[in-house]
Amino acid sequence: MTSRPAEAQHLRDLARLRRVRDRIDREYAQPLDVEALARGAHMSAGHLSRQFKLAYGESPYGYLMTRRIERAMALLRRGDLSVTEVCFAVGCSSLGTFSTRFTRTGRHAAQHLPAQRGARDGGDAAVRGEAGDQTSQESRSAGHRATPSVTVMDITIHSAFLPHDDPDAALAFYRDTLGFEVRADVGSGTMRWITVGPPGQPGTSILLAPPATDPGITDDERRTIAEMMAKGTYGWILLAAKDLDGTFERLQASDAAEVVQEPVEQPYGIRDLRFSAIPRAT
CA–CA separation, 253 vs 263, rounded Å? Predict the structure, then answer.
């Protein structure tokens, strides 16, 4: 059992670690080291390394090298840069260290990449469970296709749920930065259920809800949810934009969003970027 002040401090520490992780994602090609990251987080280097590994499963240096190798894999697939050029482009200063780490990390990452689809699939490869994909049962039954259901269900996705712990920050992000319209705002204080959605798509919404309000959730589960939110690992959503570069520029200029990955061609058929709401200052 922990006291409320101790819990609050723990969540503030996790939010600081999240900012360190986001900085690594954003500045991986810069000459970062643990001491520089620790100074930015107002921690000692040793304390940062221990707490970061507890939160994310690897040290800040390990996470930085993983990020660099992931980017190096994308650059090498383009085929217009040599290994040495890629090494320096992603922020590594030693070709030997880069090669060793690439062999170790790159092989592991490649094993977990989705299978690349043909050009005819376009961007649809990012959609999971699309029509035509085999289920596990169909994969096991060679040559057998399930009989189509006689009853066709007219079902659409109406709302997705994401947590928030600051309604004003949520509105600044989804309404003011992403340009979503607010369709409902119910409740008061921090206990507000806010429904937002893209203009022109009234049938698709995101419900921003206070976390852990279900009475069936235990105190330990509430603490876990609060920790994951502070770390930035609890919830995410995949959006699409016709003008990715224009979206990238607008997000970079925003005070409520932080871009942590520039637009990159992925090996599974899409070009994407990654961003998050800026954690509240503590």
Answer: 15
Query: Could you say which DSSP state residue 122 is in?
Result: G
Strand (E) or helix (H) holding 49: helix 45-56
E-assigned strand segments in the chain: 159-163, 181-188, 191-197, 205-209, 257-265, 271-277
Q: Which two tokens stand for residue 55?
A: 């939160």
pTM above 0.70, yes or no: no
State pLDDT tens for residues 258-276. Answer: 888 888 888 778 889 888 8
- The amino acid at residue 109 is A
Q: Using DSSP, state whether 246 is helix, strand or coil.
A: helix
Q: Which domains does the chain have, with CATH numbers?
A: 4-111 (1.10.10.60), 156-277 (3.10.180.10)
> Does the pLDDT of residue 112 top 50, yes or no?
no
State the pLDDT at residue 278. 64
The residue count of the chain comes to 282
Q: Residue 194, Cβ neighbours under 10 Å: how many?
A: 22
SS3 68: helix
Helices (H) and strands (E) in the chain, counts: 11, 6
Alpha-carbon gap, residue 215 to 222, rounded angstroms: 10
The answer to whether 35 and 23 are in contact (CB under 8 A) is no
Give pLDDT, residue 182.
97
Element spanning 194, H or E: strand 191-197
Mean pLDDT of the chain: 80
Beta strands in 199-270 (DSSP E): 205-209, 257-265
